[in-house]
Design brief:
Elements (H helix, E strand, L loop, with lengths): L2 E5 L7 H17 L4 E5 L6 H10 L2 H4 L4 E4 L7 E4 L5
Parallel strand pairs: 1-2
Antiparallel strand pairs: 2-4, 3-4
Amino acid sequence: MSKLKLDLHDIFNKGKKIEDALNNVINEAVEKKIAEVEIIPGKGSGQLKKHVLRFLDQKHIKQLYHRIDKDQKNFGRIFVYFRHKK
């Protein structure tokens, strides 16, 4: 099972770059039929994680993936799972 990882630590305060990075990783997962994307917004104040979750909740993005999980052991990680048609 293939997996992509996106660490947002370096661009945590750059709104447009965050949106671009999230769009890129979601599109790459769809194009390459990757089953899982791990997004690391980090722990911090939780604002970046909320930003990521709002992004993932957009209708046009939500239709691309199957489900998301927030890591119960590590508050600073989100997993996005995809089901691809064969």
